[in-house]
Write a structure and sequence with these properties.
Layout: H1 5-14, H2 25-36, H3 41-51, H4 55-64, E1 76-81, H5 84-88, H6 91-101, E2 115-120, E3 132-134, E4 137-139, H7 144-160
Parallel strand pairs: 1-2
Antiparallel strand pairs: 1-3, 3-4
Helix pairs in contact: 1-2, 2-3, 3-4, 6-7
The structure holds FE2/S2 (inorganic) cluster.
FE2/S2 (inorganic) cluster binds next to helix 5.
Length: 161
């Protein structure tokens, strides 16, 4: 595993905070995902070895929590809520708009590498449905026009990066 020195430092600092080192699995996974973008089988084995547990125990955590991912994604991560309130308020149209603006397929990386669009389960903002996350930023009360504005913002930020 080729982790940044600051990731290694964060991992080394996290482990002693837990009475049993295997309890540090979540912060280690978050740190590695933040560093390399996703959690490979190699990452699961590395964490297991670091914590003295079996790789299957790490994989079971990775596959249980939807915010952990096992594949590469685009530079920007778009998650459109598809649970009941958002579904009834037009989430699928919003998702279709995001996909068409970036010529992307659901769960794939757009051809320009800029985005991955996925569905997510309830993002705890049902009262302002439909909603989506772009990385860690929540957008509420969406419709096609707002989705287009957000796409234009993402494209402008990509040009200026
Ligand atoms: S159903 Fe979408 S935020 Fe709860």
């Amino acid at each position: 595993m080729n982790l940044k020195p600051e990731t290694i430092a964060l991992i080394e600092a996290a482990i002693p905070k837990y009475p049993e080192k295997q309890s540090a699995v979540m912060p280690l996974l978050h740190a590695i995902q933040k560093d390399i973008g996703f959690l490979s089988n190699e990452a699961a084995e590395w964490v297991a070895n670091k914590l003295g547990i079996e790789p299957i125990n790490v994989l079971s955590v990775i596959t249980f929590y939807p915010f952990f991912r096992q594949h590469k994604i685009g530079k920007r991560h778009i998650r459109v809520c598809r649970t009941l309130a958002c579904a009834m308020a037009g989430a699928s149209k919003v998702c279709d708009k995001m996909l068409s603006e970036f010529d992307a397929e659901l769960n794939g990386v757009s051809p320009d590498g800029e985005v991955t669009v996925e569905f997510a389960e309830c993002l705890a903002s049902c009262g302002s449905a439909p909603v989506m996350l772009v990385d860690d930023e929540l957008y509420e009360n969406l419709d096609s026009a707002k989705a287009t504005d957000i796409c234009n913002k993402i494209k402008a930020e990509a040009k200026n990066a």
